[in-house]
């Protein structure tokens, strides 16, 4: 059973069992090469916010999936081959059944609070939350190598979203090094709710063999200031709202502003949580048709 239900409470919500699918933030993203198969090689510093989508779980007599939230109406959960939550459910179920473990029907309810295709890992975060929650619901485990392969089969960002911790990712995202020293950061996320074509942004990259991130020594704000997002310049040309959004966040007192992933979400790092909350409220009042969210990232 699949539907977009925006108002009615569903069994998975009533169960009180949920997983947060946190927004993924690329604090820096360097494009350092391209493989023969066309995939771009990246180096990216990733962290995760304490805000995001929520995925609810409950045992059921038959599988079901419902969607709500500000951006729920933009999803089309009728195709299990396209929806990452359902693909994660089905592939995890198959892997567990192959290992001799039961994976009975489940009711899923996704609160879609993050913008769609926004460069903050919304779909990948949802898939990772599905994996974490279903393993809990089904009281099951998979060996790490099998779980890593399953996550990567769902998308390049799913393995890092499954980790959910600050890290340096390389390759197409599958080579991950934890960054436990990365502090928690007060941030504001903003998105003009304008679609961005990731393939087109990569196509417009003037150079696909840029300098790597290098050493991560010293004060983190100094480190981040010397880094960049190589996808931001072509995104600004393709979607002028990205430049405008970044300027408006900076005008609220952000210590650093940058685009995340392939956009169009931009973030600002603020001196404290109060400043971030104040900035998000001001920005939302000025641009009620855009998305703004104050958040705190995970970290030490």
Automatic annotation (TrEMBL):
Pathway: Isoprenoid biosynthesis; isopentenyl diphosphate biosynthesis via DXP pathway; isopentenyl diphosphate from 1-deoxy-D-xylulose 5-phosphate: step 3/6
Active site: 24, 157
Alphabetical list of SUPFAM superfamilies matching this protein: GHMP Kinase, C-terminal domain, Ribosomal protein S5 domain 2-like
The protein's Enzyme Commission number: 2.7.1.148
Domain of life: Bacteria
Record's catalysed reaction(s): 4-CDP-2-C-methyl-D-erythritol + ATP = 4-CDP-2-C-methyl-D-erythritol 2-phosphate + ADP + H(+)
Record-given protein name: 4-diphosphocytidyl-2-C-methyl-D-erythritol kinase
The organism of origin for this protein: Neorhizobium turbinariae
């Amino acid at each position: 059973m699949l539907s977009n239900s925006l108002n009615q409470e569903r069994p998975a919500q009533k169960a009180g069992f949920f997983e947060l699918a946190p927004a993924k933030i690329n604090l820096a993203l360097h494009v350092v090469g391209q493989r023969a198969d066309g995939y771009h090689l990246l180096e990216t510093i990733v962290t995760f916010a304490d805000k995001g989508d929520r995925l609810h779980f409950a045992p059921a007599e038959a599988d079901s999936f419902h969607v709500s939230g500000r951006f729920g109406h933009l999803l089309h959960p009728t195709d299990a081959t396209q929806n990452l939550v359902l693909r994660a459910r089905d592939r995890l179920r198959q892997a567990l059944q192959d290992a001799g473990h039961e994976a009975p029907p489940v009711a899923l309810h996704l609160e879609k609070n993050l913008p769609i295709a926004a460069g903050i890992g919304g779909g990948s975060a949802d898939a990772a939350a599905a994996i974490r929650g279903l393993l809990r619901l089904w009281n099951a485990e998979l060996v790490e190598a099998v779980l890593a392969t399953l996550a990567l089969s769902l998308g390049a960002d799913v393995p890092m979203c499954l980790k959910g911790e600050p890290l340096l990712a390389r390759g197409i995202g599958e080579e991950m090094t934890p960054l436990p020293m990365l502090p928690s950061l007060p941030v504001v996320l903003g998105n003009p709710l304008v679609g961005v074509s990731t393939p087109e942004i990569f196509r417009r990259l003037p150079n696909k063999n840029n300098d790597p991130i290098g050493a991560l020594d010293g004060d983190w704000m100094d480190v981040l200031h010397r880094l960049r997002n190589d996808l931001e310049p072509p995104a600004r040309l393709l979607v002028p709202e990205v430049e405008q959004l970044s300027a408006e966040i900076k005008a609220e007192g952000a210590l650093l502003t940058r685009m995340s992933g392939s956009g169009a979400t931009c973030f600002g790092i603020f001196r404290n949580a109060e400043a971030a909350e104040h900035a998000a409220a001001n920005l939302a009042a000025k641009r009620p048709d855009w998305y703004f969210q104050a958040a705190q990232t995970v970290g030490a």
